[in-house]
């Protein structure tokens, strides 16, 4: 990758917290990466110290990754405002209500006070046309409602997504909202580095990176950890960065009330989606509970949460919500006697045939 000095485009500079020329480079799909000094992010406060690595036997050590930016800087994807404007949940809901889009989700969740959680995700590769207006997601979310009003809900999310019109390949993503997904704006909500909020600290892995670049054995370990009010994102063998507690004052910065694991699809076609969830294969019952398998369907295994006493506990989500069971499936295996412990299997072709 070749470095260059460049001013961000006017639309980017207007919303960017960086007022001076930034060094840039490109990733393998050709997207622009902005290289910034870590301390220049946010309100220029000193970076929060990293918490101890999470205690886990499922973390996956990566071989040395070449940082995309010069020493002393960290990578942030250039915001993709034009292609992400349809991706806030409120905007999606409006399109669905207008009959010009379809949405489906397969979810399990646990209403439990926690300071983080996650699991090991299959690095999904759904077969989607390059011009597809759809989205396919495998993810987790941790939420807190500061009051009774729905617009007070605050959430941090992470997972793997495929959005062909925005990302030509599946990518690791992160997302936050302070207003129950009502809007995306600086310090309010948004994906990756599209809006101000995310603080990048790792010099090699960043939100928006290709899933294949960090997958090991076709899997990625992803979890959040709350530390001193900040929500730190861990992927494979390191902390990537964090959402500062100042975004979530009086709410999520004190802890989450719910952790959710789910697959989701969205299509602006306005008919039965035809968008594959996960691998595009629907889960079928395991014939042997001693040998974990999702029979080619997508999965999140070794799912866990961190309780308020900082103990790691196996995920145990009683409710399962599947709003399009004729198109997608979800099966749960909580506290199983297998090495996968708590895991979910989900997916389906969405009426489009799925993956082989």
TrEMBL record:
Keywords (A to Z) from UniProt: Signal
Alphabetical list of InterPro entries matching this protein: Glutamic_endopeptidase, Neprosin
First and last residue of the signal peptide: 1-21
Entry-linked PROSITE patterns: NEPROSIN_PEP_CD
Signal found in the keyword field: yes
Domain of life: Eukaryota
Stretches for region Disordered: 36-64
Neprosin PEP catalytic domain segment(s): 95-353
Protein's name in the database: Neprosin PEP catalytic domain-containing protein
Species of the source: Ophiocordyceps australis
Taxonomic path: Eukaryota, Fungi, Dikarya, Ascomycota, Pezizomycotina
């Amino acid at each position: 990758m070749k470095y260059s000095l460049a001013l961000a485009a006017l639309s980017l500079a207007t919303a960017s917290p960086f007022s001076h020329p930034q060094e840039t480079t490109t990733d393998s799909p050709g997207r622009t990466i902005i290289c910034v000094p870590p301390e220049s992010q946010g309100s220029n406060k000193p970076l929060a110290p990293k918490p101890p690595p999470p205690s886990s036997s499922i973390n996956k050590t990566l071989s040395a990754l070449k940082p995309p930016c010069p020493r002393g800087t960290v990578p942030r994807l250039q915001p993709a405002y034009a292609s992400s404007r349809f991706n806030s949940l409120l905007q999606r809901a409006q399109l669905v209500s207008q009959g010009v889009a379809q949405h489906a989700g397969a979810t399990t969740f646990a209403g439990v006070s926690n300071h983080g959680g996650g699991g090991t995700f299959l690095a999904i590769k759904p077969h989607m046309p390059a011009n597809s207006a759809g989205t396919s997601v495998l993810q987790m979310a941790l939420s807190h409602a500061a009051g009774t009003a729905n617009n007070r809900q605050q959430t941090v999310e992470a997972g793997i997504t495929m959005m062909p019109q925005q990302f030509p390949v599946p990518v690791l993503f992160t997302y936050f909202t302070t207003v129950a997904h009502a809007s995306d704006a600086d310090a309010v909500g948004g994906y990756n580095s599209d809006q101000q909020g995310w603080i990048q600290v790792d010099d090699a892995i960043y939100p928006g990176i290709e899933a294949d670049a960090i997958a090991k054995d076709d899997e990625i370990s992803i979890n959040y950890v709350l530390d001193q009010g900040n929500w730190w994102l861990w992927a494979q063998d390191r902390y990537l960065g964090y959402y500062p507690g100042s975004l979530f004052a009086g709410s999520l910065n004190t802890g989450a009330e719910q952790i959710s694991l789910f697959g989701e699809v969205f299509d602006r076609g306005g008919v039965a989606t035809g968008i594959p969830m996960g691998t595009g294969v629907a889960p079928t019952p395991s014939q042997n509970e001693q040998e974990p398998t999702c029979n080619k369907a997508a999965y999140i295994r070794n799912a866990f949460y961190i309780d308020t006493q900082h103990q790691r506990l196996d995920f145990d989500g009683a409710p399962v919500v599947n709003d399009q069971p004729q198109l997608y499936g979800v099966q749960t295996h909580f506290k199983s006697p297998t090495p996968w412990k708590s895991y979910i299997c989900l997916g389906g072709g969405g009426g489009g045939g799925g993956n082989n």
